[in-house]
Write a structure and sequence with these properties.
Layout lengths: L1 H10 L3 E9 L16 E8 L13 E2 L2 H7 L11 H4 L9 H11 L3 E2 L5 E2 L18 E4 L2 E3 L9 E5 L4 E21 L4 E4 L4 E6 L7 E4 L7 E4 L13 H13 E5 L2 E7 L4 H12 L3 E8 L2 E8 L1 H10 L8 H5 L2 H15 E3 L5 E5 L1 H13 L3 E6 L5 E6 L3 E3 L9 E16 L3 E6 L2 E6 L5 H10 L13 E7 L4 H6 L24 H10 L4 E8 L16 E10 L3 H8 L17 H6 L5 E10 L11 E4 L6 H8 L3 E4 L4 H12 L3
Parallel strand pairs: 1-5, 30-31
Antiparallel strand pairs: 1-2, 3-4, 6-7, 6-24, 8-9, 8-24, 9-10, 9-23, 11-12, 11-13, 13-22, 14-15, 15-17, 16-17, 18-19, 19-21, 20-21, 24-25, 26-27, 28-29
Helix pairs in contact: 5-6, 5-9, 9-10
Amino acid sequence: MPHRLAIALQERGWIVRQDNPWARPNPMPESVKNRSTRCHSYVFQIVKEPGYFYDQENGREPLSEASYKRLGQSGFAGQKGGPKDYQHGTNPNRSSRRALENLKASGSARRNMLSVWRIPTQAFPGKHYACVDDETEVLTEDGWKRQSDAVDGMRIMAFDGERMSWRPATFSRYPFSGMLVSVEGRRLSMALTPNHRVVRRPNFRKGAWRTVRAEALTQTSEVPTAAPFDELCGLENPLLAELAGWVLTDGSYTSRDLITLYQSDGRGKLEKIESMFRAAGLPVEKKRRKRNGGREAEYKIRGEACRWIQYTFPHKEGTYSVLRRWDRSALEALWRGMTEGDGNQRPDGRVTFVGNLVKVDFYQALCARLGKTCRVTHRTGNAWAAFVSSRTTTGVRSTNGRGTKVGRATYSGVVWCPSVEGGMWLARRRGKPFITGNTFPLRIPQTCIGIGTSNKGVCPQCGAPFERITSAGEPDLEWQRSAGGDANGGYSGESVKAVEGTGAQDPSEVKRRVLAGMVPKITIGWRPSCIHYPDPCDLCKKPWEHGRSRRRVSTMNIRVRDAKKGVLEQKSGLGGEVATATEEEVEAYGDEGYKWVETDVSWPACDCRKPVPGVVLDPFAGSGTTLVKAKQMGRRSIGIELSPYYVDLVRQRLAEMT
């Protein structure tokens, strides 16, 4: 049907500028056996004339994972100022992988929106908001948080159906009084509104995870409790990371330059510690003593390793930022050190860890980062225990057919839920983790309204939109430094490998260009796109305001560059003509880089004809999501809907916004 509409509009003179596939990562299951489950739709961009309005800045999106991985390839690691410098106490942000991870976390780097929109679905919940209860927590980059401590913009551990990653989230909270779906047992604890989206699959028939309403959970359901993590982190020395794990559990910060590590002589622990010291080349002082009827060894650690551990873990407790910054090998070593220190690994692979609540909470988060399921229970006083399993799923029903039950429980209080890209997130309740669904962001109408209408408004006479005038701002030094730049935002690293004549790019030059491009684009004015705003104004005679717009232009010409390197013929001619470059072009081609270009721009300086908000039309209004989003974005809207029920619902939603 959408394609038929597009064809019909084309026949009437409209232009189909682009068809954007909307890929839904969380489609509803379909009971079909003769075709694939549909998980996409189309969003058509249809315009009346070639010179149509399009606000590119409102449509920008974060860089892809592949972009960060491409910039963070191993070629950076061998440069001067690379990861090895960090081990000697220099600026940690000089590590290229660390720098790019910081760049990703900042969210400042954004690209032009791609044609495939990967946006989860969202159904309007009406009066029955899909949420979890107040006891449920979410794992953030700063640790486990309940709804009262969760703040919009926090990055949480999100699940896309295959892998975990850190994603920014927003949080919705509502008062609730009624019946919740309750799942309570030794391995699982959940309290959900009946229409909350739950990630599940039948435990007797494995397959892809599906999101269903909580009221559809049964004894035969299986829910995920852990998943592999999408790796894009800095490099750390695994031996030092393992030593840090031992220190967090059995060590003490004697002074700023001294760490003392105590360990009893049992289960071969002393041999493991001393083997680790030898492998790391760390000089330590060892002393044996008797304690509590047994023998104990005391190790004194000084030097760079001591300072690195105290810098990374200043309070001798788990620092959650390492879950974001370290790669898997370093985190596995940290987990191994903590487990050896205050834990016990059984022959069947199951692990038990004991500590205070702060330590056990971090240990559970560390397990989640490594794709392990970890459940926490209270012992006595301030003693807590963590039980680790290699399983990444949990059945609602126990193996003996008894135990966990799916029932209903009366609840009165706050219900809440994060909205996060990917559609699912890691939660825990009463120490038991599970991956669940969420309420999804309304990005489809927001994206369409943002790129198709003007933030400034339209001409009140003809409805023509005001166009954004942008210019490059001043370099963002904080942004550049967080991405590996020096005090002035530059980069002085030099590649240690010869790249000239190989056709490969110099990674140091690439990074310098990346840093040079970290200049925010700012809006300096709005220009009318119609003839009703003369310069000067015909009403008040005030002339337009003038300014200068700066933009960075690349001096790179790949065709001429490859010809100069002698590799042009190798890289062209596949399915087309062979590219060429003249001798004059090759001779004149200089250093690659960027230059700044300035142009004169102007815009009205008076409000004699003040623009009015643009109009958004939704001919199939449904529950009014587009109209609500239009009002939130400061636009006027017109909705057409045949169903009286939905008309009342739209009026109710709009009235709640006043």
